[in-house]
Amino acid sequence: MGLFTGDFYSQSLAMTTQLRVIFPELSCDVTPVFDGEPMVLYLLHGLSANSGEWTRFSKIEYYAKKYNFIIVMPEVQRSFYCDSVSGPRYFTYVAEELPRICEQWFCFGSSRENTFIAGESMGGYGAVKVGLRHPERFSGIASLSGVLNYPGIARRVMNGQWPDLLPQELRALHGATGLPSEEDDVISLVCRQAGNPQRPRLIQLCGTSDFLYEDNQTFRRAAEKAGYGHMYLEAPGDHEWPYWDKAIQYAFQFFRNMDMKTTPIY
After folding, report:
1. Nearest CA-CA partner of 97 in 200, 15, 187
2. Taking CA atoms, which of 27, 54, 172, 183 is between 20 and 30 Å from 146?
C-alpha cells in the first residue's frame, strides 16, 4: 500500500498543515474487489485526533486496496470543520482548497461520480456538512457516529454539560454565543437539500451504545421527515474504533453499490 505523508502551506489556514494519502497500488498481499481507476474518498478525523488516526486504529489501508479507493486524510485540529470567526478557515480548506491541491499534485480525477467523503464522530459531522454544502463535488457521504446535532452539543458545551469541549473553544469558532450558524447545522442542511435531485447519496451509521445515539436519531428523523432518502444502519457498538472499523466497510460497500446484506465484512 502506498501511504504518503506531507507538510505544506495552506492559504486558507495561513499556516503549514499535514496531509496523509493512501494509494491502492498493486501487490500480492490483497485481492481487490474492483480494478481500474480508483475512486477518491476524503476521510475526516474526530475531535482530539489528527490525520493519522485512521491509519493507526483501523485497517483502512487494507480496505483502500480491497475496494480500490484513494484515501485523503487532512488535518483540522479541533475545528469542527468550521471557518472560525477568529482563526483558521478549516471548512474552506477541506471543501475547496484541498480538492484543488489534490487534483493538481496527485492528478486525481475531479468527476463527481467518483468522489466521496466520510468520517467518524466530529469527522462524521464534517463529512455531512461538507458534502451537503457542496453537492456538486461529492456523490456520496458517510457519517460514522457523527456529531449530527451540533447545535444541541454546542448548547451543552456552553452550559458546562459536555466536558470534551470548553465554551471558549466554541466562542473562538462561532462568536460570543458559541452557537453555530444555520450553515453549520447539518439537520438544517439535510432538510434543505432533500429536494435537490443532485443531492449526494448518504449513509448514516451509529452504534446502539454510542453516547451520540440519541443525537443521531434526531438527525435520522429529520432526514426521513424531509424525504432525503438516506440509508440508516445501526449495530451493537460504542463510540470506539472496533465499531468504526466495521462501519467504514459498510460505507465502502454503499459507495460501490454492493449488496450490503451478502458482501462479507473483512
Report:
1. 15
2. 172
pLDDT score at 1: 65
Cell numbers representing residue 232 in the block:
440508516
pTM to 2 decimal places: 0.97
Measured over the CA atoms of residue 176, residue 179, residue 185 and residue 188, the dihedral's sign is negative
Residue 110 pLDDT greater than 90, yes or no: no
Query: DSSP secondary-structure letter at 64?
Result: H
Nearest alpha carbon to residue 209 among 175, 235, 174: 235
CA dist., res. 118 & res. 99, Å (int): 14
Are 253 and 263 spatial neighbours (Cβ–Cβ below 8 Å)?
Answer: yes
Query: How far is residue 206's CA from residue 204's CA, in Å, rounded to a whole number?
Result: 7
* 242, three cell numbers: 472496533
- Cα–Cα distance measured from residue 150 to residue 180, given in angstroms and rounded to the nearest whole number: 8
Question: What span, in angstroms and rounded, lies between the C-alpha atoms of 181 and 263?
Answer: 40
Residues written for the chain: 266
